[in-house]
Amino acid sequence: MAYATSTIPNLQLPNGKTMLSTREETMEVSVSPSPTPDLERRVMAVVTASEARGDPPFVCAVEVSRCCVSDENGDLGFPNADLASVLVSNLCFAHNTPFMWKLLEQAMANRLVYPLQVLALLTSRVVPNRTAQPEAYRLSLELIRRYSLSFSLVETGPRKKMIVKSIDGAMLLSHTYQVEEIDFGTSIVLFVFSTITTLIDCVFEDYGLPFASHSRVVNEGPKYSDLDTRGKHGNHLRESNAFMALETLENISSQKKIQHLLHLVYLNMPATFNKLLQRLRFIETPKLSTNSLAAVNHLLEKLFSNVQKSINLTYLPNKHNILGYLLNTGSMNSPPSLLIGAGRSGCWITVDIFMENSMERKTCCPGAVFEKLTELITTLQIINQASWQETFQALWLSALRLVQRVGAGREPMIGPLPHLDSRMCMLLAIVPLSIVPLLKEGSNTSNAGGNGILSRKQSLVACLQSLKQFPSLLSPPLTVVDVANDAAKKAASFVRDYKAGSGNLGMMPSNYSSMKAVGNLLHLVVEACIARDLIDTSAYFWPGYVLPAVVTKDPDLILIQEAPWLSFMQGAPLTGPLQSALMATPSPSIIELEKLNILALNGTEEERMAASKILCGASLTRGWNIQEHVVRIVVKLLSPPQTSDNPISGDTSGYLCHMHMLSAVLSCLAHVDVIHILTLYGVVSQVAAALMPLCEAFGSMPPPPTYQSSNEDEVTVYSIFSFAFLFLVRLYKFYGPVQEQLVSSRGGPVRPETTLDRLLLMRNNHVCTNDGLGVNDTKTFHKSPSHSVYIDSFPKLRNWYFQNQACVASVISGLCKPKPSHQVANLILNMICRKMNKGEIVVSDSSSMSTGAGTSTSTMTSSSMSESSGSVSEESCQRPPLLPAWEMLEAVPFVLEALLSAYAYGRLSSRDLTTGLRLLVDFFPASVATITTYFSAEITRGIWKSVQMNGTEWPSPAEGLYTFESEIKEVLSHVGVYIQNSYPRGMAPTLPLPLAALGSLTITFKLDKKSDYTRDVVGEALENCATGCSWPSMLIIGALWTQKARRWYDFIIFVATRAPFMHMKEPIEQLMRSCFKAFLGPISGDGSSLTSVRGIIGLMGQSVTNNSDLSPGLLFVRTCHTFQDPHFCSEIIFKLVIEWSGKLTDEQACGGLTLLKFGGVSLAAAICIVRQVAIIGASLLCVAGRALLVQVLFEETVPTSLLSQHEKGSGHVLSSSNILQGYAISYLMFFSVIP
Question: Where is region (Disordered) located (predicted)?
Answer without folding.
Answer: 844-876
